[in-house]
Design brief:
The chain has two domains: about 35 residues, no CATH class; about 110 residues, Rossmann fold, CATH 3.40.50.150. The protein is about 30% helix and about 25% strand. The chain contains five helices and six strands. Strands 3-4-6-5 form a four-stranded mixed beta sheet. The chain has a two-stranded parallel ribbon with strand order 1-2. Helix 2 links the parallel strand 3 and strand 4. It is globular, with a radius of gyration of 16 Å. The two termini are about 25 Å apart.
Length: about 150
């Protein structure tokens, strides 16, 4: 989406298959990325990482002062086990090795040196219906399925 708006875009994905299908440059490791960025997004990423705190600290070096970091993870608030399909989708035990709530996501980013700011919901789609639905959920409060927070690097 960012590329469609004229931004220079790169990504990181360990999956060789995903890198091969992308219309933008995708690196296999964060160490392969160079340069500074005004925005970094991690949509549904941190719950998959071995060390999300160290990844956030490392990302800080790529973000310009005042740059924006957008984090989104499943909201695992109240999940104590797999008691429903909703619980399963939030903790997805075969793929997710971390579980976050709104508060823990905010805390891990702040400990990595980011300051939380209030902003509207970000979109990862061009589908107008989904954009409106996401915006409405944001206005009415978190939808209970994911938590999305914005941070700035001072």
């Amino acid at each position: 989406m960012c590329q469609r708006f004229g931004f220079e875009v790169v990504g990181v994905d360990r999956s060789e298959a995903r890198r091969g299908r992308s219309p933008v440059p995708i690196f296999g490791e964060l160490d392969d990325v160079t340069g500074q960025f005004h925005a970094i997004t991690l949509f549904e990423v941190l719950e998959h990482l071995d060390s999300p705190a160290s990844t956030l600290r490392e990302l800080s070096r790529f973000l310009v002062p005042g740059g924006l970091l957008i984090l989104e993870t499943p909201d695992c608030s109240g999940v104590t086990g797999i008691h429903s399909l909703s619980d399963y989708h939030k903790i997805h035990p075969l793929e997710h090795i971390n579980a976050f709530t709104h508060e823990t996501l905010k805390s891990i980013a702040q400990r990595a040196g980011f300051r939380c700011i209030a902003r509207g919901a970000a979109q990862v789609t061009a589908d107008l219906v989904r954009v409106i639905r996401t915006g409405a959920k944001h206005i009415l409060g978190r939808d209970g399925r994911s938590t999305q927070l914005y941070f700035v690097k001072d």
